[in-house]
Amino acid sequence: MIDYRKYSRMAHLSATELINHVLYPLANLQDLKTRRYRTAALAGELGSSADALIYAGAIALWHLQKHDRINDAANRIREVLTNGETLNHFNAAKN
Q: Which one of 23, 28, 39, 61 is most buried, counting C-beta atoms within 10 A?
């Protein structure tokens, strides 16, 4: 069972931080092909990996009451994926 109480402490996170600190570790698979798809999604390339990040991120932002509508939350996640903000944040964290 998921303990949602720990996620309520993350209400201060921005959309980019949410993706990189919450969603990215959940998808931290070691398969090389998967890592390429994940990096492409973080760079804004559309596909199933990006769809998964948008879907999961929208639900998380909506649950944390960052947005009143899931559609608005999905648009915010889509925005940070496509403008390069997420990939830059991810690359900075790796170094």
A: 61
